[in-house]
Amino acid sequence: MASNTLVSRRGSTARKSARRGNEGAADRSRQRTLISPAQLGRRRGKVFYWVVFALVMVLFTVVFLGPLYWMVTGGLKTTQEVVQSPPTAFPSSIHTENYKQAWTVMDLSRLLFNTLYYAFGALAFQLIFDVAAAYSLSKLRPVFGKVILGMMLATLMIPATVLVVPQYLTVLDVPVFQRNLVNSPWAIWLPSVTNAFNIFLLKRFFDSIPGELLDAAAMDGASPLRTLRSIVLPISRPILGVVSIFAVVGVWKDFLWPMLTLPDPNKQTLNVGIYSLASGVPENVLIAALTIASIPTLLIFLIFQRNIMSGLTAGGLKG
């Protein structure tokens, strides 16, 4: 009896020591960095750390914010100051009328309206068709679903410029319907629906939704469409926000495809309209127009950056 008690005590002691060893190893792994805490506690380590940190922050600030600063200040300069060499870091005199002239001369209000119209139309079609495709591939499990998903993902390996010619020929004469979609918003909306990346993001998120929720809905008599509308979509707001932002920004920044399919000046997007009018305005007014065109997408990112990060990481880890 005493021997059994001794064995049990030794076993518990061994388990406690093993647990403490695992906790110590975990603590050491959490503390393992480029600079150890001991080195960071020294004066030389602190100085080295903050110098490197400051240099990295300054470098990244110049790389990412430098072009934006140059664009904003370029719209405040005179034409002579913009084209002079070497350029000036600060405007010698501020000319805010350049932005007003860019807004009126280049008719940016019409171009902004056209771009928003195309962008939110593409967003609506993507949310309808891409969500349906991702939901069916994730939860309905159709025949050859994995093959279809693989073929979709394979299209991501094809450069977008390779598909311009066949897409343009399709838009000129749509098969079956025999319609010409040039100068029509459908020329922007329909190609944007076939977005394999967004379908993959949505499918990965739908895969992380517990199947018990869908089984419970099916037991209550809900159809797959009702389950999608009442259960899946309400808990998929983060990834839907990411897909929405990608859809709007994708149409906003596109240039080649709208230039080919929207030759009518009254129907052009912001990028194409600025490009077509660039030769008739001074350089400072052109830079001011580019600054105005960049503001909406920057505001979207600043407002929804938390949603973008949470949506991109949602569904990536299980457990």
TrEMBL record:
InterPro entries: MetI-like, MetI-like_sf. It is a multi-pass membrane protein. This is Carbohydrate ABC transporter permease. Belongs to the binding-protein-dependent transport system permease family. Residues 112-304 form the ABC transmembrane type-1 domain. Residues 20-30 have a biased composition (Basic and acidic residues). Keywords: Cell membrane, Membrane, Transmembrane, Transmembrane helix, Transport. Gene3D superfamilies: MetI-like. It comes from the Bacteria. The chain crosses the membrane at residues 47-70, 116-135, 147-166, 186-206, 227-252, 285-304. Pfam families: BPD_transp_1. It comes from Streptomyces castrisilvae. It is found in: Cell membrane. Residues 1-11 have a biased composition (Polar residues). Residues 1-30 are annotated as: Disordered. Its main location: membrane.
